[in-house]
């Protein structure tokens, strides 16, 4: 288990171990203004560890970038105190904390965008969902972005990155995964443009490059990461040649010398394991195209996290679901302690219950189960 608990340099930061908190939207902001709530500060503070990295759930860069009612956003002053409470809680325990920045693109609904039609690179039939006051509903019809609108969206990313800095984060992660706007530009199933942002992959990554450059203009490359999901199925995206496309993406990102590349394995779709037992593939074929640190995510447990870091295909491993129910996950993995099962019913909104009330390992707890089984889903 040694290497998973070895220090590593991640851009500007010296981490003391390689177990990362994956970004998880938990829909617990205070409405109507997406104010980060005190229970969110509790949640992130509980999961902080000395020299460990947390990536905070996707925060929309503007009102029109929103996808889910209750999800985080970072575009107005009223949100700043809530964000500062979160970064303080993590720093108090010696942890590092990046904020993931998102534009939902076509995965949205007029009810959460303030009445504006969701935008996308192109208009392509889409049967995805958004979350409104009526629950998960079909996404609203979207429209294609005019080329003259793109600089405005890039500026939203830049302004949000500046706000993240003002709130005390240590860096930002660009959400270029899971079929949201940046991913919609990258993949040719959703990008049918014929202008400088569409067509060959060199054009399809232009939006990625420009958003990334906006984040770098605020933070410097050594404090910016990018998350991708090659062959991921969330958000109805597809590409005619995902391996070639994402190798190109990795090569492009490599030229920026960013802090890390974060890769979701395609065996996972959003918050669910689609293909049980599939070995990691995405990280394997990207490794030779990206020279910086790679964070692997999606379906890892203690053994497979250890194996992928030992193999060198990835340098760190991000955990989502297991971290949701094990605030001291790095410690438990290091000491081979049993995991508390996660509670799927509490993933998308709710109270502190099954959110910030999970306890650190206590040897006297007799009811701990190993959470690798499916039963964990409904525990
Ligand atoms: C409730 C929930 C919310 C999620 N929200 C986000 C998010 O905001 N941004 C993101 O990139 N991934 C999100 N994900 C995906 C996770 O970051 C991670 O890739 C996924 O859970 C697979 O990792 P795991 O097998 O360790 O859980 C979410 C997953 C869950 C379970």
UniProtKB/TrEMBL annotation:
Gene3D superfamilies per UniProt: Aldolase class I (3.20.20.70)
One Pfam family hit: Oxidored_FMN
Transmembrane segments: none
Organism name: Paraburkholderia bengalensis
InterPro entries: Aldolase_TIM (IPR013785), OxRdtase_FMN_N (IPR001155), Oye-like (IPR045247)
NADH:flavin oxidoreductase/NADH oxidase N-terminal domain sequence ranges: 3-339
UniProt name for this protein: Alkene reductase
């Amino acid at each position: 288990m040694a290497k998973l608990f070895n220090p590593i340099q991640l851009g500007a930061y010296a981490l003391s171990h390689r177990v990362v908190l994956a970004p998880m939207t938990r829909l617990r902001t205070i409405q109507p203004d997406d104010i980060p709530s005190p229970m969110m500060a509790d949640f992130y503070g509980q999961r902080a560890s000395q020299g460990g990295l947390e990536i905070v759930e996707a925060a929309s860069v503007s009102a029109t970038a929103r996808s889910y009612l209750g999800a985080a956003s970072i575009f107005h002053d009223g949100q700043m105190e809530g964000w500062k409470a979160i970064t303080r809680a993590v720093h108090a325990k010696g942890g590092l904390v990046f904020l993931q920045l998102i534009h939902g693109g076509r995965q949205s609904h007029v009810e959460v965008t303030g009445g504006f039609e969701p935008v996308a690179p192109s208009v392509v039939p889409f049967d995805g969902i958004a979350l409104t006051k009526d629950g998960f509903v079909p996404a609203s019809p979207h429209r294609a972005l005019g080329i003259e609108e793109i600089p405005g969206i890039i500026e939203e990313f830049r302004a949000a990155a500046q706000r993240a800095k003002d709130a005390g984060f240590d860096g930002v992660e660009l959400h270029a995964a899971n079929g949201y706007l940046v991913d919609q530009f990258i993949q040719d199933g959703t990008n049918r443009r014929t202008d400088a942002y569409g067509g060959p992959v060199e054009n399809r990554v232009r939006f990625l490059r420009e958003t990334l450059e906006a984040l770098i203009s605020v933070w410097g490359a050594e404090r910016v990461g990018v998350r991708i999901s090659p062959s991921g199925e969330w958000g109805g995206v597809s590409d005619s040649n995902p391996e070639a496309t994402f190798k190109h993406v990795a090569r492009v990102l490599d030229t920026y010398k960013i802090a890390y590349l974060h890769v979701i394995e395609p065996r996972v779709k959003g918050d669910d394991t689609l293909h049980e037992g599939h070995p990691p593939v995405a990280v394997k074929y990207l490794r030779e195209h990206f020279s910086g640190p790679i964070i692997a995510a999606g379906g890892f447990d203690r053994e497979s996290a250890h194996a992928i870091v030992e193999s060198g295909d990835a340098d760190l491993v991000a955990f989502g679901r297991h971290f949701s129910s094990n605030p001291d996950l790095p410690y438990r993995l290091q000491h081979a302690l049993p995991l508390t099962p996660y509670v799927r019913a509490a993933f998308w909104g709710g109270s502190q219950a099954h959110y910030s009330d999970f306890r650190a390992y206590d040897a006297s707890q007799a009811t701990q189960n190993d959470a690798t089984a499916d039963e964990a889903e409904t525990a």
